[in-house]
């Protein structure tokens, strides 16, 4: 059983389009995250939600909008996609002890 | 803000020990972590250490923490080809109110030579 699952795994789209990535966790965790990993494999946190409330919102363009309909889901919607948005986006979740993150397999976004 | 630094690449021969180093700047860090990322996969937690510990050993893995120098290392004994991956150092300051998110280093690519 997949603990943290993201869809789609691959996404290729044109500049200016709007796209969404979905994430679901079946671990019963209270906190979920979105991380961005660039082509050099550098990893940066974008957002964190705890019990459906936004608790971390790093310096991210407001074209990126997370939505958490419930504790088990955290979706990422991106408007007006730009070339620089090409990256692998990882969803993660945690519970209790800070930092023990469980990651999804990533969603590779390519903007042409 | 917090900063976590690692070398980007480490090359070792199969069977040797690998030592991956990390330095961090936040003196209030309470937990320090090592995550492993294999090609095409997400990160997986390898091990972690509380800031009040100096050392933690788990089979082939040894974590050393020098809190004074803010230096963390991960030693992998008898390195195997399956250890080839990117290793991320990460730290957090646990406020007791829930997970605050981690600050990750840029990752060390461990390359195994036959």
What are the low-pLDDT stretches of chain B, counting only 5+ consecutive residues below 50? none
Arithmetic mean pLDDT of chain A: 91
Strand content of chain B: over 45%
The major β-sheet of chain A equals: 7 strands, mixed
Class derived from helix and strand content of chain A: mainly beta
Counting DSSP E segments of at least 2 residues, the number of strands of chain A comes to 11
Folded structure, characterized:
- The complex is a heterodimer of chains A (112) and B (114).
- Chain A has 112 residues and is mainly β.
- Chain A has strands spanning 4-7, 10-13, 19-25, 31-37, 43-50, 53-57, 64-70, 73-78, 87-94, 102-103, 107-111.
- Chain A starts with a strand and ends with a strand.
- Chain B is mostly beta strands.
- Chain B is built from no helices and eleven strands.
- The mean pLDDT of chain B is 90.
- The interface between A and B is medium-sized, with 28 and 28 residues.
Summarize the structure.
The complex is a heterodimer of chains A (112) and B (114). With 112 residues, chain A is an all-beta fold.
Characteristic terms for this protein:
heterodimer; A: 112 residues; mainly beta; seven-stranded mixed beta sheet; four-stranded antiparallel beta sheet; 11 strands; 0% helix; 56% strand; globular; B: 114 residues; six-stranded mixed beta sheet; five-stranded antiparallel beta sheet; 54% strand
Question: Topology, please?
Answer:
The complex is a heterodimer of chains A (112) and B (114).
Chain A: E1 4-7, E2 10-13, E3 19-25, E4 31-37, E5 43-50, E6 53-57, E7 64-70, E8 73-78, E9 87-94, E10 102-103, E11 107-111
Chain B: E1 4-6, E2 9-13, E3 18-24, E4 31-37, E5 43-50, E6 55-58, E7 61-66, E8 71-76, E9 85-92, E10 103-104, E11 108-113
Parallel strand pairs in B: 2-11
Antiparallel strand pairs in B: 1-3, 3-8, 4-5, 4-9, 6-7, 7-8, 9-10, 9-11
């Amino acid at each position: 059983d997949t603990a943290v699952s993201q869809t789609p795994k691959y996404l290729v789209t044109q500049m200016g389009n709007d796209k969404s990535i979905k994430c679901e966790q079946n671990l019963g965790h209270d906190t979920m995250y979105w991380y961005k990993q660039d082509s050099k494999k550098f990893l940066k946190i974008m957002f964190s939600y705890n019990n459906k409330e936004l608790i971390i919102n790093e310096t991210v363009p407001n074209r990126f909008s997370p939505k958490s309909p419930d504790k088990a889901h955290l979706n990422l919607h991106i408007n007006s996609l730009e070339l620089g948005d090409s990256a692998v986006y990882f969803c993660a979740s945690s519970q209790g002890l800070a930092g023990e993150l469980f990651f999804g397999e990533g969603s590779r976004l390519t903007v042409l | 803000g917090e900063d976590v630094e690692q070398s980007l690449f480490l090359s070792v021969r199969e069977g040797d020990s690998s030592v991956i180093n990390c330095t961090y700047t936040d003196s209030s860090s309470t937990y320090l972590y090592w995550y492993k990322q294999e090609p095409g996969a997400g990160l997986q937690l390898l091990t972690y250490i509380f800031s009040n510990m100096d050392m933690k050993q788990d089979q082939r893995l040894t974590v050393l923490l020098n809190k004074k120098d803010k230096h963390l290392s991960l030693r992998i004994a008898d390195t195997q080809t399956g250890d080839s991956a990117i290793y991320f150092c990460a730290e957090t300051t646990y406020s007791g109110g829930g997970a605050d998110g981690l600050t990750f280093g840029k990752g060390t690519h461990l390359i195994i030579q036959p």
